[in-house]
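S1.2 Input.
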Amino acid sequence: MITTRAVTSQDVSRIWQIRTDAILEGCSTHYTRYEVQTWAGSPMPEAFTEVLLSLGAIVAVELVDELSVEQVAEALGECGSNIQGDTPEKILGFGFIDAAQCRLEAVFVDPEAVGMGIGKLLAIELEVQAKKAGVKTLSLSSSLNAVGFYKKLGFNAGDETRWRHPTGIELMCIPMCKLL
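S1.3 Output.
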C-alpha cells in the first residue's frame, strides 16, 4: 500500500537522495550535462531539514508488508527506509508547499517509482494542504522535463524564464499556476 505522511527529520537524507537521483535521471533530456551535474551535485542546504519540517513537507511511502522479500531487504538496507511504529516503509517521493507564498515548492519522485502515480498522489495531497491554508491560486516553477506532468494536473504554463540556482548556474524553467 502506498500512502503519504508528514516528513520527519529521519527522512531528510533519503529525501535529498531522491531529489538528486530525480535530477540526474529525469532532467538529462532537457538540460546540459554540466547543468544537471552542477544542480544534482550541490550540497544539501544547512536549513533544509528546518524548511521541510516548518512547511509541512510530505513523503509518499510504500509499506513494506506489501513488498516482496527482495524488496523488503532492499527497503531495510541501502534504499533509505524508516520504521514508523511497527511498519517498515520505503520512501518513494516527497513534496512541499509554501502556503504563505502560494507556491508548490517541490515534488520529487524516486526514478525507480516513476510511472506509479507517486507524483500525482503527492501533488494532489499538497493541493489539499494549500486549499486548507486558504490558497486560491497555487504557483510553481517547473523544470522543463516536468511541464507535461503539471499540465495534466491542471496547471497553466507561462513563458520560459531562468532560475538562478544557489550554485550560480541559471536553469531554464516554466512558471505555472492553477486556480484551486
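S1.4 Remarks. The chain has a mean pLDDT of 91.
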